[in-house]
Amino acid sequence: MYIYLDNAATTRQHPAVTDVMAKTASEDFFNSSALYPPSVVVKNKIQVAREVILKKLGGNSGDLVFTSGATESNNMVIFGKATKRTRILCLEGEHSSVYAPVKYLKDNGYDITIIPLQSDGRANLGDIRGVYDLVLFGLVNSDTGTIQDAKAIVQSLRRSFPKAHIHCDATQAFCKIPFNVVELDLDSASISGHKICGPKGIGALYLKKGVHLDPIMLGGGQQPIRPGTENNPAVLGFAKAVEVFNTNENFAHVSALHAHLIKSLPQGVTVNGINNNPYITNLQLSGRVLGQTVLNALAIDGILVGLGSACSGSNKSRTLSAMGISDQRAKQVLRISFCPENTAAEVDNFISKLSEILKKF
To answer: pTM for the whole thing?
Structure first.
């Protein structure tokens, strides 16, 4: 039996989600675009799922487009808004599903500004200068868990660039920390099912009412700007995950685990980034031991941890580099990320094994 402490990479699917998906796959398998009664029933259930998720986002008046995940959602915004005249601002350290398309545009002559992070992982609003049409930022960093001050960022941008499209990658924040897309005045936001004990391969893009994006795929008219037959089991499973994920109770539970983790850390092990999010903690190891070495040793004992974003494609973290951490030190980290299923006993086991391993180096 594993002790799983890499929930920022993905989470175990909740049994209630699995039940809904199985029932949907066997009973509500109809194409929601067809016109006969069973398909109309499915179409209505998908609309209810959309409303459940919109309500959780606080964006009841907006639109929600179901996608294959946050990666597709982020790409839909970036390529759906970018033209050769579009001036784009992006924070350094963003998830690769934001950073990679932005870098592609930059390499192809687009006007891109990427601003660095402070040593605590937060953006410095003083670095935001110039005029921008599209602004991209993550609410919670997937490497360090640092929560950006979204309200301050958006308010500052709105004063300077009232017509800019502001997009938030809310993948690591959705359901875990309270936020409201309308109160934050976001034009769009991306979310994903598998970060909250929901199914993989399903995400969504919130769009403020009236916001226009050029489609990046062409086909049928199943959803605005996103063609393709809806994945009924995944959509309804996503909504069920939102329903059963209790934000306040889970935050309190995970906060207690996080506090226990921090007070129990072996001597010399510190935390990278401001410690304002209990779900994700980036640990800086002492000495010269590599994170990969410790990860492998922990895995032998059935304890699974991360090094950083599972989508980064390398051991080097752009987030840590942007925070001024050297490449060598950036290789000496572990990412611990909790879910509501984790226990204090699992934290104790992790700390005990980590201490044993570090004593060998």
So the answer is: 0.94
Q: Do 225 and 253 lie in a common domain?
A: no
Q: What is the pLDDT of residue 172?
A: 98
342 contact partners, CB below 8 Å, separation of at least 6: 4, 5, 7, 254, 257
When pLDDT is cut at 50, 70 and 90, the band that residue 122 belongs to is very high
Tell me which residues are annotated as active site. Answer: 311
Together in a domain, 232 and 254: no
Sort 212 into a burial class: Cβ within 10 Å, 0-12 / 13-18 / 19+.
exposed
**Cα–Cα distance, 279 to 137 (Å, whole number):** 19
Among residues 209, 244, 279, the one where a domain terminates is 244
Question: Where in the sequence is the domain holding 300, given as residue range(s)?
Answer: 3-11+246-358
Looking at residues 35-42, what average pLDDT do you find? 96
Residues near 274 by beta carbon (within 8 Å), at least 6 away in sequence: 120, 121, 122, 146, 147
The amino acid sitting at 194 is: H
Section 211-230 average pLDDT: 90
Tell me, yes or no, whether 126 and 210 share the same domain: yes
Is residue 192 predicted with pLDDT exceeding 90? yes
